[in-house]
Amino acid sequence: MTAAQLAAPRPVDYDGQHLRHVLSSAAASAGLHGFENRLGLPTAEIVVVVMADGLGDQLIARHSGHARFLSKAWRSGRSAAVLDAAVPTTTANSLACLGTGRTPGEHGLVGYDVYSPAHDRVVNMLGSWDEDVDPHQWQPHATVLTRAEQAGATVVTVSRPGFRTSQLTRAALWGGEFLGAEGLRARFLRAEERIAALRPVRGGARQGAATPVLMYLYVDELDKAGHRYGTDSPQWVEALETVDRELEQLCRRLRQRFGDSASVLLTADHGMIDVDPQQRLDVAETPELLDGVAHTAGEPRLMQLTLDHTLTESGVSALRRRWEERFGDQAWIRSRDEAVEEGWFGAVEPRVSGRIGDLLIAQHGGRALFDTSRTGAGPLGMVGHHGSLTDAEREVPLLVLSGQELSGS
To answer: Which domain of life is it from (predicted)?
Structure first.
C-alpha cells in the first residue's frame, strides 16, 4: 500500500462527542451559568470528573475482566459513551482541551514536544517547560475550572503534589483549591474527605449551603505502567484493578451519603498501543531523512518536523518524498496546511500555527519513530505509546459511575 492509497484518518469530532466538552458539560450539569451541557451529563450538585490517564476505550474492552465495576457502566448504553480525543493523542494536548474547552489549535499545546517560533527551539509541554516560557502567555484562554469558580462553584483539584504549580496546570487546569496526594489510594481518600467536609451530614439531614461542587481527580498510574511495561503487562493490569476498586469504593460512599445528587464521571485523555522493540525506529540512523530538518518534535507516534527556512520548494518536496518512500505505507504524512485543512487540530489561531510542524508523520501501523540525536536513547525503551490518529489511541470512554444516567440514552 502506498501513501496515496492509505485511507485518510477519520475526521476528529471536535464539535461533537469530544473530550474537550467534558469539564464544560460537567460545570453545566452542576447548574452553573455560562456553560453548555453538550454531552448530556446528568444533573447533580456534586460532580467529580476522574481523568484516568491512558485508559482508552479499547483497553477497557480488552481488560474488562479486571475492571468489573467500570465494565458494568461501560456495557450500559445508559451510562457510557465513546468520545474522541485530541490530535496528537497525548496528555498535554488532551488535558489542555479538557481544561480549557478549546481545540489544540486554540490552546496551543499541540504535542508532547512543541516547536516555539518565538524561542526557535523545542519546548516540552508536559513536565519540563523552559523557564522563559510563560504558561499564561503560551495558553491565554481562561480555564474551565477558573470560570466555574467565578460562576459560584466550589472547585477542587486532587492530583499529585508536584502538579500543584506545574506549567501544565498553570496553563490549562488552573482554578480553585488544589489537594495533593502522591499515592492512588491517598488521592481518592482526599477527594472523599473534602466532599464530606463541604457537605457535612448531621442528624440524618445534610447541612450547609447547596453550593455546587466541581472536582477534578487525576489518575496517572495506568499511563505510567503502560509506558514502562505495556498494556498487557501484569503491572498494567494490577494498576487497572486498583483504579477499579478505588472508584467503586468512592462511588459507594458518595451514593450512601448523597444519593443521585453526587455524580462521578470517568474519562481518559488517550488510549495506548504496545510497540515491539523492532518497530521502534531511530530516524537519526538515516541522515537523509533529517537533511533539511531544523527541529524534530511531537511524539514517537506523531513526529512533527520543522524544516530549515532556507529549504527551497523543490527541497521540501524531495524531503517529503524521502519520508513517504520510507514510511508512507504505514503512516499518514501531511504538511501543516493539509493537516489543518483536514481538521486535525480543530480551529487554529494564528499565534499557534507556527508551533505545528511543517511536515507531520502520524503512524497508522505499529511503528514508533524516535530522534535520539535530540532525545537520547532513553525513550527507545518505552513499550506503550500514543499520539497518532488510530481508533485505539483516539477513542476514550465517558462513563457515569454514580448518579443519574446520561440524558437521551
So the answer is: Bacteria
Long-range contacts of 69-75 (CB under 8 A, 24+ apart): 69/244, 69/245, 69/247, 69/248, 69/251, 69/401, 70/243, 70/244, 70/247, 70/266, 70/399, 70/401, 73/266, 73/399, 73/400, 73/401, 74/397, 74/399
State phi, psi for 230 to the nearest 5 degrees.
100, 160
Query: Predicted confidence band at 407 (pLDDT cuts at 50, 70, 90)?
Result: confident
Mean pLDDT across 293-299: 98
Cβ neighbours for 314, distance < 8 A, ≥ 6 positions apart: none
Whether the ω angle into residue 88 lies within 30 degrees of 0, i.e. cis, is yes
The number of beta carbons lying within 10 Å of the beta carbon of residue 275 is: 21
For 156-189, what is each residue's pLDDT tens digit?
999 999 999 999 999 999 999 999 999 999 999 9
**Beta strand spans in 85-204 (E):** 113-116, 121-124, 154-159, 177-180, 201-202
* Rounded CA separation 54/294 (Å): 31
Question: In the chain, what are the domains?
Answer: 19-110+124-273+391-402 (3.40.720.10), 277-385 (3.30.1360.180)
242-270: pLDDT as tens digits: 999 999 999 999 999 999 999 999 999 99
Which residues partner with 299 through β-bridges?
302
Look at residue 409 in the predicted model and tell me its pLDDT: 44
The count of residues in the chain is 409
Residues 6+ apart with CB under 8 A from 201: 207, 257
Rounded to whole angstroms, the Cα distance separating 369 from 360 reads: 12
Q: What is the dihedral of CA 334, 340, 346, 348, to 10 degrees?
A: 130
| pLDDT (mean) for 135-141 | 97
pTM for the whole structure: 0.95
For residue 295, CA distances in Å to 193, 277, 344, 355 come to: 47, 25, 21, 11
Residue 355 backbone zone (phi > 0: left; psi -120 to 50: alpha; other: beta): alpha
